[in-house]
Description:
Layout: E1 3-8, H1 13-23, E2 31-38, E3 41-48, E4 64-70, E5 85-86, E6 92-100, H2 103-112, H3 124-133, H4 138-145, E7 151-159, E8 165-170, E9 175-178, E10 183-186, E11 198-201, E12 206-211, E13 214-219, E14 222-224, E15 229-230, H5 246-252, H6 254-265, E16 282-287, H7 289-305, E17 310-314, E18 328-334, H8 340-351, E19 355-360, H9 366-370, E20 373-376, H10 389-405, H11 413-432, H12 435-444, E21 449-454, H13 458-473, E22 476-481, E23 499-502, H14 509-521, E24 526-531, E25 543-547, H15 555-574
Parallel strand pairs: 16-17, 16-18, 18-19, 19-20, 21-22, 21-23, 23-24, 24-25
Antiparallel strand pairs: 1-4, 1-10, 2-3, 2-4, 5-6, 6-7, 7-8, 8-12, 9-10, 9-11, 11-15, 12-13, 13-14
Helix pairs in contact: 3-4, 6-10, 6-11, 7-10, 7-13, 11-15, 12-15, 13-15
The protein binds fructose -6-phosphate.
Amino acid sequence: MCGIIGYIGYRDAGEVITHGLKRMEYRGYDSWGIAVNNDDGLNVYKRVGAIGEIETVDIGNSTLGIGHTRWATHGEPSEINAHPHLDCTRKLAVVHNGIIENFLSLRENLSAEGHKFVSETDTEVVAHLLEKNLNTSLENALIRSLPAMKGSYAIVVTNAGKRELVGCRYRSPLLLGIGDDEYFLASDVTAILEYTNRIVYLEDHDVVTITDEGYTITNSGTSVERAIERIPWSLEDAQRGGYEHFMLKEIHEIPKIIEETLLEYVTDTINLDISLAAGTSEIIFFACGTSYHAALIGKYIIEEVSRIPVRVEYASESNYHRTPLTRSLVIGITQSGETADTLNAMRRAKSFGAKVLAITNVLGSSATRIADHVIYTRAGPEIGVAATKTFIAQLIILYLIASKLAMPPIDETEKFLTEFRMLPEKIRQILDNTQAITNIAKILAGHNSMIYIGRNRGYPIALEGALKMKEISYIHAEGYPAGELKHGPFALLGAKTPVVASVINDHTHEIMLNNIREVKTRGSLIVAITDERDEEVERYVDFTIKTPATSAIFAPITQAVTLQLLAYYTAKRIGCEIDKPKNLAKSVTVE
Ligand code: F6R
């Protein structure tokens, strides 16, 4: 959802901020803007669209400024609605990520007091509130303004002619980067990795004031110290590294990620702390999008090896369902750790006394603040909007959790670990042999609609394959349990609707073949994704993509990578903007 950045130091602020915004574009890319602050006052530069190849902007010499890349919520993408927003005196510039829910009433009151608004955004009220409350210092004006605002915010402000940045956060991410004689504020560490990896993660209600001399943090009026952490990610992790797209690079990182996850969590046994699960009566997963699909696979695997019932809910629907019990273990899965719906579901579960575990990829993210315990996926920064490597990293953690929860007489540990160790090589084989995938992508690229089907663990894979396809190629794609097709979706079958079938070499194999034959007689082109040992399926389908042989329980992983590549090459064939699909943002920090 929007990305914000602030800089104070000795470098050219226009350049630092442009670089930072480019790295945060995955958070929003319909418009962007920068304000730099020097002796002459504020210079503001705004543009509609993505930053693209721009390296710096001609905005005047300055070593202090703020910037914003936008994913529109209030008001269409336009230069007027792009941040930074200014007050009436044009001395205060504000960038904001989040939503000021009561902005309409604030705007009405401020307008009645004579403030003139120019944009349709919620953020502009912040600039005017600050103007109204500015009497001693900018910090003080912000502290006086915050109680009036309802909603979520990370805000960075600067005051013309003053060498000072002030920021605050509540339920939207904001971190402080500390360099040598320079400081950064940013929504995301990738924005500033080029300059520093020393980070302070701000807490809700923190207000940070930065000058050339240093910084101070207060929380609800009291001065606080926050730990400085060193981030293990490098700039290289956040760059394309010769790949045409981040998405392709990130898919290619999957074997390494599996190896690193195993190094982190596995010796001759699995060293994952799941003590929160002790005595639990049920596990409830809350997640959105791709993370929701990971949770669904987790359910199948955990229920197969343990006796613990597992519920998986869309985080956005969790309010409307049975509340978690005190003996429930709630697991929030969120790669960004900032998805508003997932965070709300986790908070609500905690308020009912449930234990809450977070599985996330981002150190210091909001999910880590809410959870009683955190298990990190080791995927490194994911820049492509479509989740790929983080999905596989989530699956690996879920498989490790499942094998820790396995109940006697099932002890899958040895089997799981043997399979895990072979997985990176198998995925490398898929990455090195994409001919069948690219050939089929060419055919799929000529269609407007397709259906994905699967059974058992293949069903969430069908959902995820369809999600990847629709989000980056804009081809309408739906995933269904294979058995559900005849209960309605059959009406869509025919030459114009190809079907992609996830076939797994287990007890579901025979019935999947029946379903495939049923589809074939309705005239749809069928692509099957199956294990290389499966010779039978070829008789009934038009095309087969073979994945290296794995035990059936691990087939979702090799199939997911294959379907990610299928979506990628289809979108590439069509010529889509793969890393930044229209209307989407990587981190959805509003409900
Ligand atoms: C799809 C995708 C989204 C996210 C969803 C949840 O490729 O990336 O569906 O999975 O927005 O995001 P996180 O995992 O950050 O909570």
